[in-house]
Amino acid sequence: MRFREKRLTKSIINLTPMVDMLFLILLFFLVTSSFIEQPNIKLELPSTKYASTSKIEERVLTISRDGKLFFQNEPVERKNLVSVLKNAFSKQDDKTLILRADKNVSYGTVVDIMDAAKGAGLRRIVAPTILEPEKQP
Questions:
Q1: pTM: predicted TM-score of the whole model, two decimal places
Q2: Transmembrane segments in this chain: where (predicted)?
Q3: Which site among 6, 10, 37, 65 is 20 to 30 Å from 112 CA-CA?
């Protein structure tokens, strides 16, 4: 009687498809990560419960409830805002404006002021908020 010899076959795991998939996933994250970032505009709501507070009081632009502008507590006309901001930030390395607006100011007014600040060459706009006290039940 003749028996067949059993051939030993080695199982080899081919890693090439797995490496290809890892490179595709890496490429996907590299391409899509640039779309997640909000460019140059950081905006907080006028009052928050959990945001951290900041004590920065330099270069502050204030918008009152009736839409009047004050830069460092001096009244400013809307048509002169770009030139005032350019002059104030011309010798500054940190081009950050603190924008304090009343919570009842219209969104369009705030966007117009942010656009003027961008036109003056400012890189960052920070909108400070007031921390709401926690309510006890």
A1: 0.54
A2: 12-36
A3: 37
